[in-house]
Design a protein that fits this description.
- The structure is a homodimer of 144-residue chains.
- Chain A is an all-alpha fold and 144 residues long.
- Chain A folds into two domains: 4-75, Multidrug-efflux Transporter Regulator, Chain: A, Domain 2 (Orthogonal Bundle), CATH 1.10.1660; 80-131.
- Chain A is built from six helices and two strands.
- In chain A, helix 1 crosses helix 2 and helix 1 crosses helix 3 (42-56).
- The radius of gyration of chain A is 24 Å and the shape is elongated.
- The model of chain A is unreliable at 138-144 (pLDDT under 50).
- The interface between A and B is large, with 56 and 56 residues.
- Chain B binds a DNA duplex (30 and 30 nucleotides) through helix 2.
DNA sequence: TACAACCTGTGTGTTACACACAGGTCAAGG
DNA sequence: CCTTGACCTGTGTGTAACACACAGGTTGTA
């Protein structure tokens, strides 16, 4: 039987993360000591390693919970797994594109600001640098 | 004097977001009606538009709060503003790279799974698709 | 037996909202 | 004057995935 710390070492997971997973019911202790300490088997370590793999593939903890619950009922989670990854690929692509746009905005701003002095705020302006950025006026809300 | 809803329309911000900003003290009502309704001036609308610009440039609400507080004291926030954007550019670049790696992992997995049938879970395996992914064993933790 | 190092479970804080809820306000209609 | 309905109000709570702090328990050494 392993303690939380030993389980953490065994599964290459920070102990406080193991405790978090316990809290949300993603894993359960196999037994409990009289003093309240939680105890685990090597099977729990394997489960935890599975969780890490799934996270590495972009699954959320909720999805992982669903998957392991399915598996415990003997149902194959594979179909859901494929769908989730397909969905996440789209989602992630959109997020990446958004972040690259942000990156461009920030880089352009910094370059533009190189030629501008610092300013002292007055009633009309909070920070003229930010306010000077292209697209400050006339946002194009053509999407959605 | 504008109500929350009017301020929201004036500044092109969802009303529930305006209420959130009020809650965290990012903006303050200029006055209050007897019934508790909060009232604002057109200056508040300008402030809110500034907040949207800053968010568009990647500033967090906390950072924006600092900036506006600096500005209210008559101190120039420009120096901090430049530093924050520089920092965020690095941060964002790292995040984008990480997400692109995830993207590649997911795409590779999906391709690999095309040749694999669904499986029924047993005691040893939760989902053989996830467990089959390259790099499941022998993680290379060479960084930090 | 005293002490220090470490480990335990758990409460709270984080970011930027989204949703829900009970009640208040306003214009139209009877 | 009263009601009905639509809309608006402030506020409590939930979200994802931890990170940190805290008071107390355990273990090894002297």
């Amino acid at each position: 039987m392993l303690t939380v710390n030993e389980l953490a070492l065994e599964s290459d997971t920070p102990a406080h993360v193991v405790r978090y997973y316990l809290r949300i019911g993603l894993i359960q202790p196999a037994a409990q000591q009289e003093n309240g300490y939680r105890l685990f088997t090597s099977n729990d370590a394997a489960r935890l390693r599975f969780i890490r793999m799934a996270k590495h593939l972009g699954f959320t903890l909720n999805e992982i919970k669903q998957i392991t619950q399915h598996a415990e009922l003997g149902e194959s989670p594979c179909d859901d797994v494929r769908k989730i990854v397909q969905h996440r690929i789209h989602e992630n692509r959109a997020k990446i594109e958004e972040m690259m746009k942000l990156q461009e905005r920030m880089e352009q701003a910094l370059e533009q600001w190189d030629l501008m002095p610092d300013g002292i705020p007055d009633g009309n302006s909070v920070c003229h640098l930010i306010e000077s950025v292209e697209g400050s006026e006339g946002h194009c809300h053509t999407e959605t």
